[in-house]
Design brief:
This protein has 348 residues and is mainly beta. The chain has 4 domains: 116 residues, OB fold (Dihydrolipoamide Acetyltransferase, E2P), CATH 2.40.50; 68 residues, OB fold (Dihydrolipoamide Acetyltransferase, E2P) (Beta Barrel); 69 residues, OB fold (Dihydrolipoamide Acetyltransferase, E2P), CATH 2.40.50.320; 67 residues, OB fold (Dihydrolipoamide Acetyltransferase, E2P). It has 2 helices and 24 strands. The strands form 4 sheets. Strands 3-4-5-7-6 form a 5-stranded mixed barrel. It has a 5-stranded mixed beta barrel with strand order 8-9-10-13-12. It has a 5-stranded mixed beta barrel with strand order 14-15-16-19-18.
């Protein structure tokens, strides 16, 4: 797609054309004279950026302004909805329903500054409800919630609680130290509304990945999980080189294989540590992505074969899953004048 900047000269050109003639610009922008003499616009493309402060968003480089009379809807709304709206109903979605990456159809009018004031914004496709999964030990239990790996998990009457054999259980059976797997929907306050909680059995093999948050007497804390180390634990650094417990440092990235104990902690069979330089980090919104690089602001970070890309639940992603506008944290290293991403974590 090409970025089209429809400025004063272009709008004057459109105004000189007969009403029946329309100009189709690359990228899906259609401009034509309106019945009142103003220049109308029809635009189709992906939302590239959103500004809540100005109630506007960008499509193929064109700023779209959402006003109080702008209607936002999904294209799966049926004719009955349209008929109901025509008779005084209200099916208008809020501005917050728009997301970076949404494909939209826009109808509106050009403003004097070249922006488009939208009459209608139609979002293609059905609304997608994001689901997340987390696994960890219960750190605390409230009246209708638990805390797992530092995240508050809310339970309601629709939450299914069961053991690994799918036998029904209850909220009262949840206890501090139990290992659970949670599936649910993220909430605006950062909590998760659980649709299902599965209580894991003890003495179960487990794998953990994360940074060392704390170090104690022959134990480390990874992802809010206590991991014990004994004489049988295999400790390895880069290139599978043996290391000692004293080589482990807070902030170091590790992968743990072990067995869940009765108290919910993990006895490590093996710990692989990234003992290379911890490198640097950057956090921000993606402004460009390719198969081999990403950009935050004006800085480009190369993606290597060894670069790990994950969502906020730790699930592995591909470079093609990254989208402009995503909030990410990048751990990177410098190579001459270039920057290379070691780890990319999508935050939202």
């Amino acid at each position: 797609m090409f970025d089209i900047n429809v400025g004063t000269k272009m709008r004057r050109l459109v105004a000189m054309l007969p009403v029946s003639i329309a100009l189709i610009f690359a990228g899906g922008l259609l401009a034509h004279d309106g019945p009142g003499g103003g220049t109308r616009a029809e635009l189709r493309g992906e939302i590239q950026a959103i500004s809540e402060s100005t109630s506007s968003f960008t499509v193929i480089g064109q700023t779209i302004v959402v006003g109080p009379d702008t209607r936002i809807r999904r294209d799966d709304d049926d004719d009955e909805d349209d008929d109901r709206i025509a008779h005084g109903g209200d099916d208008n979605l809020p501005f917050s329903a728009l997301q970076v990456g949404d494909m939209v159809d826009v109808e509106g009018s050009f403003l004097p500054d070249g922006q488009i004031l939208a009459d209608e914004v139609e979002i293609e496709g059905e609304a997608v409800v994001e689901q997340v999964e987390i696994e960890g030990t219960i750190q605390s239990v409230g009246t209708d919630s638990i805390v797992v790996a530092g995240i508050t998990v809310v339970v309601d009457s629709f939450t299914i609680i069961e053991d690994e054999n799918h036998n029904p259980s209850s909220f009262s059976s949840l206890q501090v130290g139990q290992r659970v797997e949670v599936k649910g929907t993220p909430q605006p306050d950062g909590s998760i509304l659980a649709s299902k909680i599965e209580i894991k059995e003890v003495n179960q093999a487990i794998k953990l990945e994360g940074t060392i948050q704390a170090i104690g007497d022959m134990l480390i804390v990874v992802a809010a999980q206590v991991v014990h180390v004994d004489a049988a634990t295999i400790l390895e650094g880069d290139d599978d080189m043996p290391i000692h417990f004293g080589d482990l440092k807070p902030g170091m990235k590790v992968e743990v294989e072990g067995i869940v104990q009765d108290d919910g902690s993990v006895l490590a069979n093996k710990i692989e540590a990234d003992t290379s330089s911890p490198g640097l980090s950057a956090t921000g919104r993606l402004t460009a992505t390719t198969a081999t690089s990403i950009r935050i602001g004006k800085r480009v970070y190369g993606l290597l074969k060894s670069t790990k890309i994950r969502d906020r639940s730790g699930h592995t992603l591909k470079p093609s899953d990254l989208r402009v506008g995503m909030q990410v944290r990048v751990l990177y290293k410098k190579g001459g004048k270039s920057f290379f991403a070691r780890d990319v974590r999508v935050l939202k």
